[in-house]
Write a structure and sequence with these properties.
The protein is mainly α. 52% of the residues lie in helices and 0% in strands. The chain has one domain (21-171): dinb family like domain (Four Helix Bundle (Hemerythrin (Met), subunit A)), CATH 1.20.120.450. The protein contains five helices and no strands.
Amino acid sequence: MTTTEQPAQDRRPEPSTRAGERDMLEGWLDYHRATLAWKCQGLDDEQLRRASVPPSELTLLGLVRHMADVERHWFRRILTGEDAPPLHWTDEDPDGDFHVTEDDTWDQAYATWQEEIAQARKRADGRSLDEVSAGRSRSGEVFSLRWIYTHMIEEYARHNGHADLLRERVDGETGE
């Protein structure tokens, strides 16, 4: 299979080419969320925990755990100002979301990630793209929902590039 062909299991929702701004942003975010899930599809826990691009410790399972924390951070902590502690990292281990162990499973990581996506959608629902966040960055900045959506698309796009390389090294599977 060449990199221009997509495996049969690719069922990502194609973003509309003519949607309004909000639908476009949400469409691209959903597309990138589905891309990460697709990159993990069909692998077992051992393969998902495999750091396949040495010397990097990055794994597909670590990326999923990281994105669960990213969803939680931007939509719960920043957008709504909730007290939502990190899921997988601590001050002592700021990269803990990437540090997977034999005890970490796809089922667990996927369920947590999907719950954070559901919570993100719930918190964004009905809000204007211009609405300013209740939470602030460490430097005191506030963010519009538009900025958060754009940042989340960028975050997923960057990590989906990593996921593509990791997946190819695990089993040779490629695709956009």
